[in-house]
């Protein structure tokens, strides 16, 4: 619909004129043509120089939030070599590309503007050859070269400018202020992740770079199926149906149909002898840390042990443990949650009375009942319970603080529906009293999980090798996922497979 200026109030014409002058002064006069996609790209509010600055600024934060960089120089050099080989085939080969392996067991990969590409060691454990990893890196390079972050940022700024003008117009013409706030929330939510078109572009460019570097473009389909199978297994283990927010299937929502479409759009030429690099890849990941890093604690079924801190505890059956650098979360059915963390050492030293801390500092916003001082395996502790109304209904929240030593206070939060609190009482007390110090011999005996490459021998079957996996549940499903096998797969003597072992 075309609106002629004569139909608008004079003052409104003035507002629009001011907006146009503002946008012109900010350089929002048009779009640029992206050399990778050949399309017009709206990146007016973030220059390539600003992209580089943003990447450099955010890089340390990423390392801090995601477990830091995985300490394996040879593997890091190998991944960097693959990354630079692909980067050289892009439309921006001169960027100072940086490839980082994150010390994180979650299967994920992402990129920051300015040439920063991140791959988790969890993703490296899932992949089975160099071409699959090249496919992941190529996709992230596609996001960088196509300047998708600059597009998202520029559109967000433009949306906010528009919303500011909407607020001015609203004030002059009686539009409720809530309209502006709702629009702002909607714009922010819409621009949080890559759009479907941007994901398709990254797939298309990634396939292009794979082909140019001599890799088989269909490796992206093979690895996509592995990612989908892994997500299905993780959902099964956690008794959930949706994808976790930090899973690669959530951050890069794709389908096999769209990947095939990307291959078609990329018009990848047929490669006579495409590189797969399975043996080379297996040599480099043999011994790769799998699951939790012992320095951040280990999950062993229902048990959490931290050899560095020398403590351990156990959660009830049917709870799934999730570990992060700052806390441990156990989730059960029907929104039952247990959260465990450690107080800052300085605050722990200054906390004299645990009961007062729970009542007046930690739980001051909760309608806590009487504080009970208790002893747990020779350590002072205090606990209190509150009943609260929430969006999830009436819930019972119990706080527990344990002083393990003068500089260490550990905390548990038990949060569940009030209707289940009584039934869970005994199990939660068992969890509380399972917290204890580890002996030196127990600490010494802790061995992390690692990926080991095994050569199949005559008589070996999927089930036989899966039983050797150092996991206590879903060992058969995990073996199949790690090796890209289905229910009908048969192993052949000489074939190399991944297993999980300790040591």
Question: On the 0-100 scale, what is the average pLDDT?
Answer: 84
Biggest sheet: strands side by side, in what order?
10-11-12-16-15-14-13
State the helix count.
Answer: 18
Task: Tally the structural domains.
Answer: 4
Percent in strands: 15-25%
Structural class: alpha+beta
**What is the CA-based Rg, rounded?**
27 Å
Main sheet, how many strands, which sense, barrel? 7 strands, antiparallel
**Broad shape:** globular
Give me the count of strands: 19
Low-pLDDT runs: 1-20, 165-191
* Quaternary class: single chain
Which percent bin holds the helix content?
40-55%
In words, what does this structure look like?
The protein is of the alpha+beta class and 503 residues long. The chain folds into 4 domains: 25 residues; 193 residues, no CATH class; 138 residues, 3-Layer(aba) Sandwich (Protein Transport Mog1p, Chain A); 54 residues, Membrane-bound Lytic Murein Transglycosylase D, Chain A, CATH 3.10.350.10. The protein has 18 helices and 19 strands. Strands 10-11-12-16-15-14-13 form a 7-stranded antiparallel beta sheet, sandwiched between helices. Strands 7-8-9-17 form a 4-stranded antiparallel beta sheet. A hairpin with a 6-residue loop joins strand 1 and strand 2. Helix 5 packs across helix 9 and helix 8 packs across helix 11. The N and C termini lie far apart (69 Å). The N terminus is likely disordered.
């Amino acid at each position: 619909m075309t609106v002629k200026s004569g139909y608008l109030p004079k003052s409104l014409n003035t507002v629009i004129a001011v907006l146009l002058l503002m946008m012109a002064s900010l350089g929002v006069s048009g779009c640029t043509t992206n050399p990778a996609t050949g399309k017009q790209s709206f990146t007016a509010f973030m220059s390539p120089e600003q992209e580089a600055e943003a990447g450099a600024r955010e890089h340390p934060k990423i390392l801090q939030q995601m477990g830091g960089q995985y300490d394996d120089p040879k593997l890091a050099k190998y991944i960097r070599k693959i990354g630079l080989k692909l980067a050289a085939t892009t439309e921006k080969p001169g960027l100072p590309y940086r490839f980082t392996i994150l010390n994180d067991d979650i299967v994920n990969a992402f990129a920051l503007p300015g040439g920063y590409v991140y791959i988790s060691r969890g993703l490296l454990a899932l992949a089975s050859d160099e071409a699959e990893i090249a496919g992941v890196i190529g996709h992230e390079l596609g996001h960088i070269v196509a300047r998708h972050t600059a597009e998202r940022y520029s559109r967000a700024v433009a949306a906010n400018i528009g919303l500011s003008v909407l607020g001015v117009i609203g004030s002059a013409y009686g539009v409720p202020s809530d309209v502006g706030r709702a629009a702002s929330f909607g714009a922010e939510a819409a621009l949080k992740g890559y759009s479907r078109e941007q994901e398709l572009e990254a797939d298309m460019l990634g396939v292009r770079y794979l082909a140019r570097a001599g890799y088989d473009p269909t490796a992206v389909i093979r690895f996509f199926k592995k990612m989908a199978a892994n997500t299905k297994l993780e959902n099964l283990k956690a008794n959930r149906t949706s994808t976790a927010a930090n899973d690669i299937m959530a951050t890069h929502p794709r389908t096999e149909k769209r990947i095939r479409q990307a291959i078609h759009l990329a018009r990848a030429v047929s490669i006579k002898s495409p590189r797969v690099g399975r043996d080379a890849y297996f040599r480099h990941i043999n011994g790769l840390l799998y699951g939790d890093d012992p320095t951040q604690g280990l999950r062993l079924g229902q048990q959490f042990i931290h050899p560095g801190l020398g403590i351990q505890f156990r959660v009830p059956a049917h709870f799934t443990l999730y570990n992060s650098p700052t806390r441990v979360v156990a989730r059960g059915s029907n929104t039952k949650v247990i959260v465990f963390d450690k107080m800052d050492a300085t605050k722990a030293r200054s906390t004299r009375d645990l009961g007062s801390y729970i009542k007046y500092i930690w739980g001051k916003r909760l309608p806590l009942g009487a504080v009970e001082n208790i002893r747990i395996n020779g350590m002072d502790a205090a606990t209190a319970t509150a009943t609260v109304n929430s969006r999830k209904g009436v819930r019972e929240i119990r706080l527990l603080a344990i002083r393990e030593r003068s500089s260490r206070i550990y905390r548990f939060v038990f949060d569940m529906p009030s209707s289940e609190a009584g039934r869970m009482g005994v199990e939660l007390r068992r969890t509380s009293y399972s917290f204890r110090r580890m002996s030196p011999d127990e600490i010494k005996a802790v061995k992390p999980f690692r990926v080991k490459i095994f050569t199949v021998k005559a008589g070996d079957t999927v089930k036989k090798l899966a039983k050797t996996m150092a996991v206590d549940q879903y060992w058969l499903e995990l073996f199949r996922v790690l090796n890209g096998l289905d229910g009908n797969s048969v192993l052949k003597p000489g074939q190399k497979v991944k297993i999980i072992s300790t040591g």
